[in-house]
Predict the 3D structure of the following.
Amino acid sequence: MKITEDILKALQNCIHGIGSINELSQQTNVNIETISKYLSRKTQSIKQDTWEKLYPRLKPYLPQNGESRPAIKESRIRVDAAAVKIDHKHTLLSIDEKILLDAFAELSPELKNKKLIEIVELARQAVLKNKPVEE
């Protein structure tokens, strides 16, 4: 199956609706890396057996009769196996951000803490770098 713009949009909207690439991977039994390749256009087609796994999840997001379908948004994301209601504006993450969050979720608690400290330090340095010099 060739990855068309409609399929790419459906995949993006499906991930947004479900909450994460990790969740789509678990629901369809398709590797996260494979889904990421589709999203980043590193491959131009989807194998038939993979398409058969993805299609039931993508179908609600695909256009019907040539019409474009709007993104279906759910107001929940999974956090430690619990569904938490949040405001839609907080669910607008890019695909890259969702990939990072999914990867981060797989880390051990100790490594998560270490990486958070590193990220906060990088952000602090960036803020200081962009801060105007006082005379």
